[in-house]
Design a protein that fits this description.
mainly alpha, single chain
Length: about 130
C-alpha cells in the first residue's frame, strides 16, 4: 500500500504515479493534511515540493522509506501488479523495470556495461516470463 511513497526518493517514481497513489489512499479512508495536499498537487509541481509532502505523509502514518535492494524488489512488485491489473502497458512495465535494474546495478557496474549487457538481458528475461504466463 505504501511502497510507492517508501521508494519515491531513491527510485525516482514518476510524480503522476505518486499523486495518484495519494488519491487512492484517500479513497481507501487514509487521511492526513499532508496526504490531502499531496493528492492536490500535479505532475507539473516541483519534485522537491512533492518529495516534501511524500515524506510528511509517510511520517503521518509512521512509515519508513525503503532503501537499497528492498526498495527495488518492492517497487518491482508494484509495477508488475499494476501491469497485471491493466493499469499500465507492457511497454511501460518493461521501461520501469529496466530503469530499476540500471538504478540498482548502476553502483556495481559501469553504465556502458549495463547498456551493452544488462539492459538487453533483463528485457529478454522479462519478455520470456510474460510469454510464459
Amino acid at each position: 500500500m505504501f511502497t510507492q511513497a517508501q521508494v519515491f526518493n531513491i527510485l525516482d517514481v514518476p510524480l503522476a504515479d505518486i499523486i495518484e497513489w495519494a488519491i487512492e489512499l484517500l479513497s481507501l479512508g487514509y487521511d492526513s493534511a499532508n496526504l490531502r495536499i499531496l493528492a492536490g498537487l500535479s505532475h507539473l509541481n516541483d519534485r522537491q515540493e512533492v518529495t516534501y509532502y511524500v515524506n510528511q505523509s509517510l511520517e503521518d502514518f509512521k512509515i519508513s522509506p525503503l532503501t537499497g535492494k528492498i526498495s527495488v524488489i518492492a517497487y518491482t512488485a508494484v509495477i508488475i501488479k499494476e501491469f497485471l491489473r491493466a493499469k499500465i502497458s507492457q511497454r511501460r512495465m518493461l521501461q520501469e523495470i529496466c530503469k530499476l535494474c540500471i538504478v540498482f546495478l548502476g553502483g556495481v557496474f559501469s553504465p556502458t556495461f549495463l547498456i551493452k549487457m544488462g539492459l538487453t538481458y533483463y528485457r529478454e528475461c522479462i519478455l520470456a516470463t510474460l510469454q510464459g504466463m
